[in-house]
Design a protein that fits this description.
186 residues, two-stranded parallel sheet, 5 helices
Length: 186
Amino acid sequence: VARRLSLRKHPECHSMAGGKAIEHLAQTGNRQQHTFRLPMQQYRNCDFSFSGLQNLVNKAVIQKEKEEGIQEGEILSCVKDIAAAVQHAVAVHIIQRTYRAMLFCTKNKILSSKNATLVVSGGVASNQYIRKGLQTLADANDFAFLCPPPRLCTDNGVMIAWNGIERLRAGLGVLHSTDGIRYEPK
């Protein structure tokens, strides 16, 4: 979406990654100016998909480009509103699917009703809007909420390292000797 909106050309976003640019512009956009249908509402499962939403956004952008008489690659006057609407749709989709997963895990006793924890990591966890929504979801369902600092929420490599730090601090699964461990590929 950020690429389609040409956010690298936006003066406020030229050095930002796509997700960060969407979040930044969404802060001053009006999400109610555009409404995007939520993905996969007909499926009663915990799956995520954003391809349908991306398609809807692309169609809306094409329509707005025609209305404004601009070419693909130019910045739309309503780019902040589109960013806010997209961010909201993504957040609601993630929150709804996460809620279904929480209910499924609780109902099937996969998680204890006591001490249940929602852990959020990776790039999604760096978005404060989504993070706040998931925190509200966890609070409303008596789940603890665990999320690393945003500066560590970049990619899964960083998350694996953070997991290692937490396991080391807790003394869980820590090797005290590397004897007998193969490092070369099989």
